[in-house]
Amino acid sequence: MTTAASDWRWLDAAARLACRARPASFPNPGVGCILVKDGMVVGRGWTAVGGRPHAEAAALDQAGKRAHGATAYVTLEPCAHRSERGPACSERLVDAGVARVVAGVEDPDPRTAGAGFARLRDAGISAELVHHPAAEASLAGYLMRAHTGRPHVTMKLAMSLDGCIATAGGESQWISGEVARAHVHSRRAIADAILVGGGTWRADKPRLDVRLPGLKDRGPQRVVLTRGIAPDGVKVINTPDQIAQLDALYLYIEAGANIAASFMKADLVDRLEIYRAPIVIGGGRGAVADVGLTKLEDAHDRWCQVERRQLGSDTFAAYSRTR
After folding, report:
1. Which residues form the CMP/dCMP-type deaminase domain (predicted)?
2. Known catalytic residue: 56?
3. What whole-number distance in Å separates Cα of residue 247 and Cα of residue 312?
């Protein structure tokens, strides 16, 4: 295996580790790190609850003296700034005597932004940036917040084969099956906040929690888009653009047709997750209301399928917004 192919493989593994940090690492990004020496993993880590220790620190602590001469594969450039909560990861890597560092994303934080790589190189360590899609995907919320000032937005829609989310009378529970609903709860568990519209809140009184064994403490912050007043413990925003005010890197939306349309019209949806049940409703309520589209050609080349799987009798497909 070539060095480039090996680097790609280990960064893939580091990106999978990074997913374990989400969302508990908030407000810090979820980062993954793997230390490899002579083809063997000697340490691995991901950002801990509350953001500390960082992934590199956890991997170095696990590796101990074996980190000397190793290659560190990390999804995000090692930080260069000191904190009251711990030393800079670039310093830790220098002190441990690693031989090489390969990162998948340069840190947009101005306190690091290339300074982490510079510190490593000044110490004689080979530091390389590999623009790695899986690493970037694992940091989607952090990068979205850094570049646009808002959280990364995933919108979930559960619909029939003919695109309905409810009967004409409004009955919607349940379109999807038990396996698909469990999958939805696993998606809630990795979000910092979950949003519904005021109509859904008033009609269904949704709990918006996580009801999976071992994950019941992962309930995200509840948010309602409404002009009204929500109960204590529920955040209210009045317009889609106010999601920038949320303390969140990842926002999960369980949308009705009007909410879906409002976020799509504002181009604030980064990922669509669609659960499609093998039923035909006919004459029911559509999944998305008017988004202001006037020409069919404008609907093309906006979404790219990035995932597809079978969940019991339902199909799941995820689409990433092409920008």
Report:
1. 5-120
2. yes
3. 35
Angle between helices 55-63 and 89-96 (to 10 degrees): 20
Phi, psi (degrees; rounded to nearest 5) at 106: -80, 135
Helix, strand or coil, per DSSP, at residue 175: coil
CA distance 44 to 62: 7
What whole-number distance in Å separates Cα of residue 47 and Cα of residue 62?
Answer: 14
CA distance 128 to 117: 8
pLDDT tens figures, 91-114: 999 999 999 999 999 999 999 999
169 contact partners, CB below 8 Å, separation of at least 6: none
CA separation for the pair 252, 248 (Å, rounded)? 10
Task: Tell me: cis bond preceding 133? Omega within 30 of 0 counts.
Answer: no
The two three-digit tokens of residue 55, written as one number:
């992934």
CA 114 centroid distance within chain: 23
Q: Which of 56, 77, 91, 254 is catalytic?
A: 56
The CB density around residue 321, as the number of other CB atoms within 10 Å, is 15
Q: 216: which residues sit within 8 A by CB, 6+ positions away? A: 209, 210
Phi, psi of 243 (to 5 degrees): -60, -20
- pLDDT (tens digit per residue) in 190-231: 999 999 988 777 766 778 888 888 888 888 999 999 887 777
Cα radius of gyration rounded to whole Å, the chain: 22
Q: Calculate mean pLDDT across residues 263-273.
A: 95
